[in-house]
Write a structure and sequence with these properties.
- The protein is of the alpha+beta class.
- The protein is 36% helix and 26% strand.
- It contains three helices and four strands; from the N terminus they run E-H-H-E-E-E-H.
- The protein has helices at residues 14-25, 31-41, 87-100, and strands at 5-10, 53-58, 63-70, 76-82.
- The chain has a four-stranded antiparallel beta sheet.
- A hairpin with a 4-residue loop joins strand 2 (53-58) and strand 3 (63-70).
- Helix 1 (14-25) packs antiparallel against helix 3.
- The radius of gyration is 13 Å and the shape is globular.
- The termini are far apart.
Length: 103
């Protein structure tokens, strides 16, 4: 089992991150998914161990477990992605986190 890929992104980039990760797994991330995630992340706290929200991206090629929490008082969202089992998916996931943490 691989280690989770962790980092943070700007909250405004969350939907794009999830849409691209979904594409890589063979899952179609739609408006219903977004409404669910948006509501789930709303009351999260990245400093509380039980304050995170988990959302699975169950695709045709793999399943990613994305765990999210907002920084209290900030615009950042902490992200942990488990299940990236191939080197290619690990690199893509890490690259997305880096890109979406940029202004």
């Amino acid at each position: 089992m691989t280690e989770p890929i962790t980092g943070w992104i700007w909250g405004r980039n969350l939907r794009a991150l999830l849409e691209l990760l979904s594409h890589y797994t063979g899952y179609t991330f739609d408006e219903t998914d977004w409404v669910t995630v948006e509501a789930g992340v709303q009351d999260t706290d990245d400093e509380a161990p039980d304050g995170w929200y988990s959302y699975p991206l169950v695709g045709t090629s793999t399943t990613l477990e994305v765990v999210l929490a907002q920084a209290v008082g900030g615009e950042e969202v902490s992200v942990s992605v488990s299940g990236a089992s191939t080197p290619e998916l690990q690199l893509r996931t890490d690259t997305l986190l880096s890109a979406f943490a940029s202004n």
